[in-house]
Amino acid sequence: PVRMLIVDDDPFVCTLLRAVLEQADFPSETQCVHDGYTGLMRIGAWRPDVLVLDILMPGINGLEVLNRIRADPDLDDMAIVVITAIFDRSDVVQAARSAGVAAILPKPVEARRLLDIIGACMALPVPFPNEERGALQR
Q: Within 10 A of 102 (CB to CB), how many other CB atoms are there?
């Protein structure tokens, strides 16, 4: 399974994203943390394959997390997907792009798009959510 870490200060977002992965039968082991500092500690200890990272967080924000990750050559192979409510701020989007993220998605996150991006990052086939699978089998 894909090791995925979600770093978002909103527990609801973490719960929602985890539910999306479970509903789609996505082969993942997912952990959630709610601040940048804890995210960095978990990244160092657990080495996720994919990081889903919010930008606006108290303390160490998502851009600082990105800068620290990119300063560590051991983390070059980790795919990063940024999710943010400030998608309209070009300076933030440009800073994230400069850090070499796989994608930047606006909140609220579209489940299908997130699954497609994670699947592409890991070169995995993306399963259909259960209701779509049922519709295709009829």
A: 15
* Domain residue limits, the chain: 2-137
Q: How far is CA 102 from the centre of its chain?
A: 9
The whole-angstrom separation of Cα 101 and Cα 130 is: 29
Residue pLDDT, tens place only, 42-51: 999 999 999 9
pLDDT at 138: 32
This prediction has a pTM of 0.86
- Indicate the length of the chain as a whole number: 138
Query: Which of 120, 73, 70, 117 lies closest to 95 in space, CA to CA?
Result: 70
Q: Which two tokens stand for residue 86?
A: 């400030």
What digits encode the pLDDT tens for the residues 10-52? 999 999 999 998 888 888 899 999 999 999 999 999 999 999 9
State the residue for tokens 């699954």. 115
- Identify the CATH class of 2-137: alpha beta
Q: What is the pLDDT of residue 26?
A: 80
Question: Residue-wise over 42-60: b if at least 16 C-beta within 10 A, else e?
Answer: bbeeeebbbbbbbbbbeeb
